[in-house]
Amino acid sequence: MTLQQFFDYVVSNPSATLWYFLGVPLIAFVAGIFSKNEGHLSPWNYVYAVLIYMVCLPGIFAVTLNIYFFFWERRSILDTELFIQVIPILSMIASLSIIKQNVDLDLVPGFDKLSGLMIIIGTLLTLMWILDRTHIYAITFMPFPMVIGIIVGGVLLVRYFSKKLIA
Question: Which parts of the chain span the membrane according to its record (predicted)?
Answer without folding.
Answer: 16-34, 46-70, 82-99, 111-130, 136-161
